[in-house]
Amino acid sequence: MEHALSPTTLTELRRPRPYPAVSVLTPTHRREPYRAQDQVRLRNVVAEAKKQLEADPSVTRERRADVGRQLDQALAEVDLTYAEDGLVIFAAPGEHQVWSLARSVPERVVLSDTFLTRNLVSAQAAERPYWVLSVSADRATLWHGSLDRITEARVGGFPLTRRVENFDAERRERIGDTPSTFRDDGTRHFLKDADSALSAILRRNPRPLYVTGEQAALSLLEEIGGVGRHAVHIPHGGLAHGTREAVWQAIEPRIVAENRAHADAVTRELVNARGRKSFAAGVDEVWRSAREGRIRLLAVEENFRMTVRGEGGEHLIPAGSDELDAREDIVDEIVEQCLETGADVRFVPDGTLSDARGIAGVLRF
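The structure assignment produced for this chain is given below.
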């Protein structure tokens, strides 16, 4: 299952497909006993997608069979043991993808000539993805991080390794064979190669970067002057060969502190915007401002959801999910619209925006 949404991947997902491009969305759960229910729910929603394919007169028999096979293959690839909060299946003639999201999605099936990506975009913004590079003299490991989850990223040649004969850094320093392993030319070239490989990844998929390693390794990266120089340095050795649990323990205090600081900064901006009368609050007002491209900063509580329906095309009013024209993912629509118009989107802890009814914006004009 896919987790990381890069700009290149999003562009590929958004390109037009031969009709029908099927998007299947369903909420999932991380814990029992709900996972058993999720399996049944997933099979039912895939069956509903096939039913819609059968009922669509514009879908030829060959394409119906092809997309049906793609849906079956996607369903077989789903492992709910590792389920998060939402699951998205994309299927079109000759292709399929399965995405696991750390953000809930409404249950729905959409047939179109493009895949429905707004929920992926919103989940990506909510997860605040980052990179962690862990370095030692003989290994550089890259980790993909989002919120409180990290996984090893085997991309761009990572992990990089270097074979060193009779390599025992601690002993060599102790007996004085060399002042520091990180002053060795071979080590310098190795870390420079790691920095270059990471630079290529960041060009394709820019994110905040944290680097862990011994202080000597971090100092050497500073001297090399590449992307590692501008990263947040966390002096902690041994993690290039470590587990993801060990890496998370090392970076958690910094991540938590930065998230708290970001939430405080958003609150201050919203207070200032109220004083300048450049403030929007509530789904209806924020939605209208987003459509007009007026939002500079969008703030959303992490678990805020609302189901609405349109009223006369000009306003949104609360609605039940069983109403015919209900829009269950209006928050994700707003997030995607704001990102496409260049707004800064920030997710903040629940309760932060209680006086703004869960969602607020700072206006450009």
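Interim note for the steering committee: Residues 223 and 229 are 8 Å apart (CA to CA). The first strand starts at residue 21 and ends at 27.
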